Amino acid sequence: MGQLSEDMTVTRQICEAIKDQIRRGVHGPGARLPSTRALAAEWGVSRTTVTAAYGQLIAEGYLETRQGARATVVQGLGLDVPKLREVPAPVTVRLSSYGQRVLDLPIPSPPLPGRLIADFRYGDVAAADFPTLAWRKAISAAILRRPARLGYGDPAGSLELRAALQGYLWRARGLRCDPDQIVIVNGSQQGLDLCARLLLDPGDRVLVENPCYGLARQTFSAVGAVPIPVDVDGEGMRTDGLGDARLAYVTPSHQFPLGGVMSAARRRELLSWARRSGAYVIEDDYDSEYRYDIAPIPALQALDGAETVLYLGTVSKTLSPTLRLGYLVVPPGLRDAFVSAKRLSDRHSPALEQDALADLIVSGAYERHVRSARRRNRERRAVLLASLSKTFGDDVAVVGADAGLHVVAWLNRVPKEREDELLARAAAGLGLYPVSPLYDPAVPASHPGIVGLVMGYASLGEREIEQGVERLASVLDVLAQSNSLKLDVSRERVRSHSGSNARGRREGNDQRSRQWTDDADR
Amino acid sequence: MGQLSEDMTVTRQICEAIKDQIRRGVHGPGARLPSTRALAAEWGVSRTTVTAAYGQLIAEGYLETRQGARATVVQGLGLDVPKLREVPAPVTVRLSSYGQRVLDLPIPSPPLPGRLIADFRYGDVAAADFPTLAWRKAISAAILRRPARLGYGDPAGSLELRAALQGYLWRARGLRCDPDQIVIVNGSQQGLDLCARLLLDPGDRVLVENPCYGLARQTFSAVGAVPIPVDVDGEGMRTDGLGDARLAYVTPSHQFPLGGVMSAARRRELLSWARRSGAYVIEDDYDSEYRYDIAPIPALQALDGAETVLYLGTVSKTLSPTLRLGYLVVPPGLRDAFVSAKRLSDRHSPALEQDALADLIVSGAYERHVRSARRRNRERRAVLLASLSKTFGDDVAVVGADAGLHVVAWLNRVPKEREDELLARAAAGLGLYPVSPLYDPAVPASHPGIVGLVMGYASLGEREIEQGVERLASVLDVLAQSNSLKLDVSRERVRSHSGSNARGRREGNDQRSRQWTDDADR
User: Fold this and answer.
1) Model confidence, pTM
2) What's the CA gap between A513 and A518, in Å, rounded?
């Protein structure tokens, strides 16, 4: 049989060819097929191979053979098969109501090509910051450590990783939990999806910040829930007059995208609201490792008695979004439902990566890495803030800079109406991401009315950041020429960026149109 | 700040201690806290650290300080916080209807410990069969190949892997598709879950084989659909009199668990039914790489015009279930919905593993590995079949042996009523998995009435297999003593396995009870 396996490709080709001939009527019902000798000669293969092919077709019920006689096409077969083809394809795609809702969502597109001067896309991190050697070492060790039997793992995640995270979360976030409250997920997105599936029925109300992380709003809408926008300010989501809802989704450590830190008073009000109204609270702690001027604010979960808060963490910002590793800390009463749902979703997260991350945390390498990544990003942030201030002065107001991996830059003198024009002109050389799509379109008044840009810096070099800001200045300058805008931008700065625009513009538009499908990303 | 990061743990501990004191009323509203000097002495830390902690508590709104004066507890805070604690935890857990359904499902449990004589658990593979060096090499190469920016990938999966799979599926399965029809998923379970979410609404009927892969039935039930059992025989699922349904779930290459191969005639009938009734068909091709006596039967998808069949493949059986890598091939009309749903589920599958698998397929290493794994499993299978036949003769009827990584052994002389007793007696030394839980309990008549065992062999050594069968014989022998069963088992074979039973029995029962929660697994 080993030999046959080697010849499988040829055998398969012969089988497929004969089946096609049968379907096209070359061999009608009962027709005798060529002798193995003849067919072997025709294909230039051994008779053994042809005999194997005939045997295969007999096994599949296409051919039959009688005592020594040549193989013949079975009756009725030749007529049936073409009929299949005649049946027209179903005109309508039949989807569940969930399927119909997700079909309305944008399909994401690849990130912008590297030839841009600077891509301020939020959510990307620099490969240079990734602890490549440590990760390779940990993965190799994990592969060699595998037990003799490779079987399915614990759907909640490996106990080693959950125990390591318990310690890390207490040290880094003041968060106390039992390893059994932790469920390892494929990045925070799977955590959000599990929360939406397990906690929300169609029609349920869920409070979301406005502006809000777009994929969160999409995830809640996809399960049929109704996102209710709640205004945010410098202290995060406003907690006065919270309405009835099953769930609230917040980013208290660093509101996405505006960067406010939720105050202690509002944290208490939010938790009291949750208890009063029997609602749960999702605390998305997506980038709390990056805090530059004071130590991290303890997690909302630490204020709560593990009754209403579901804490969501990820290594996408500390290691890499390509790893797809995150973790949920859920109230004990919800644990079984989340473990069971995780099992039905995909059995468990990949085992080698879980082992590698546990190694890094236990050895202390993870927290050392977080500290050095924090230092590097503090430097990038300083360069961005300095360039923006030097270049634009009061024309640009920066918010949310004391934490995270992005800032929001409000262009005080560019009305929202000119956003599309700005992006079109910038697209040639810059990846720019406006904050406007993150606002709930149903509440237009909540948007300040001037262009705001979400500027991520974690994947950029310092020179890239400076050149990117210079290019932004030149774009705003051109924009100013084209109408009454008065921007204090000297011709000086844009000198270096003439030429290559025709090419750039064309690609730019294409890039921009692709970018628009990605507004929801973080 | 770098210094502060280093001291974060101590700072955090001081903050938490003070907050606990505030909550317990040790420091009431407006109370002055100890001087930094006093607290520094009390904790044996620098005043800088205490000052940082106070600064943190001021930032969080717990303390306030006036010009030079000592920090005081803010008004109202001390009273509010304890209130939080007084509010009782919600007595009822509030879940969505999906959450309530998954809560009723069994939570899986860890695999049996290695000290068993033999664990015939299906779905595990031998670590010795895993191409460790090739995988480590491919993963390392993938890590080093990463682009400068680490960002989110294509939710459908990397184009390299989808292109590599397109070629592999044509060579190995006679399956023609466009890379855009392929969606990379975290093992076949995520593929099943996506199909259930996107194609089924609560109350929809879905045809499943009886007996059937348990997790598939659970996945459909979890979304509120109604699984309709359809009898199977040696030709797989019966296609006469298929009722109305939105979806049919089949394992045509090797029916799970009974191992029948769906005949060409039934494949055509199933596809005609799907077209007539506007239903989709999920083809779960979970172990088709393992076929020992003839080449693989081409995929059902290859007969279909990519209109109704969703093809589901996995590397769990060829490489390892711990990797969580699988793939869906969907009709073009369904592609956008699946890509969008995969994105909302977890953005995309881990990038490094996708790159490594693409490398292995493109280099030919994957198919070489599949051939050698097929050879090794053919040997294991031969040993199992020989031992069963030599040991039990006609007392055991084996089915489904010509393909896959398991057989079903029917114990002709052991009535189903004695199944629990058999498992209890065997549990001390054997991992045995009855086929009975895979039958729909609503159709008791469909079960033959004698004990059938699903015997997986892919993770066992040849000696383990032989010793496992010998132990099974000894267990059946003991069972026979305990009542009228006449089993032709000589005392000879069981000699070597006396002793260690008291210990074994105790663990065994524990192991068995844990196993029962895992009936649905494959």
Assistant:
1) 0.80
2) 10
